[in-house]
Amino acid sequence: MYRIRSGRSVAGEAIARDTWVRFGEQIAGQVDPSSNEAMQLREPRQIMRTFLWTLILAAMVVASAGTSAGRSDSPDPQAKMDAMSVADLERAGDQARATKDYDQAISYFQAALRKDKKNPQLLNKLGLSQLKATKLEEARASFEKAVKRDSKYADGFNNLGAVFFVQRNLGAATRNFKKAVALNETKPVYHINLGAAWFGQNKLDRAMAEYARALQLDPEALNHNSNAGISAQISTTEERARYDYMMAKLYARLGNAEECLRCLKKAKEGGYRMNNVYKDEEFSRLYQDPRLAEIAPPPAK
Fold this sequence. Notes:
Elements (H helix, E strand, L loop, with lengths): L9 H18 L8 H38 L3 H6 L3 H13 L3 H14 L4 H13 L3 H14 L4 H13 L3 H14 L4 H13 L3 H14 L19 H17 L3 H13 L20 H6 L6
């Protein structure tokens, strides 16, 4: 904002003082209003009054312009989104989701869906953002719309199962994970999620079969963190220890001694009793491994 500075000469200051003194004298009744002197005073008074009104009007214009400029610097976010293409909105939503700004991602995907209402991929991304933001019912509705638009959309069924899993509706979770597996049997995360659902229902053999298949497809499958799936959510220390023991048996079956021993150690640290290590045939290949004896000492002969 501009600021006007005044600069006065000595002569100018003298004239100004003289004018204001005579102006004050007239106000006090010391000058005859009909005199020539009074007439001379009226002219500077009129000039001053005009000058003051000019300043006031100028200030009003500046204030109005400043307010208008402020509005132009902050455009309506909704209007900005409405001007974007579907592809640009989807990219912006993906970027927001990558930075974990899930509320912003939701806004972008919703704006994209206003332009492309029947796009199952957009509905799926909206549901994932809502799931991450713990808006479970909204996420469920988005995934249900996605699979309604495309009955062969495996990711949609998997992610709908994820919502049910988080809500502890394991029956519904299992049904949707099974649909995902049936549509795409080669995606490891579907088997992992189905295994988690079976494990939550204490159906350990079925859980182990799904985990084994996931590891066949990708030996690092259990170490990935996919936005499309969920990890097994074990609620208590005892369940976690039991899960680790089950995974130790699975790795032993696959001949992966390192992972087997790691899971056995975690199970022991979680309080799982090692009574059956030398009875479960899966561990028979490790009986001569001294590392197994450190975790679970062999029974006395």
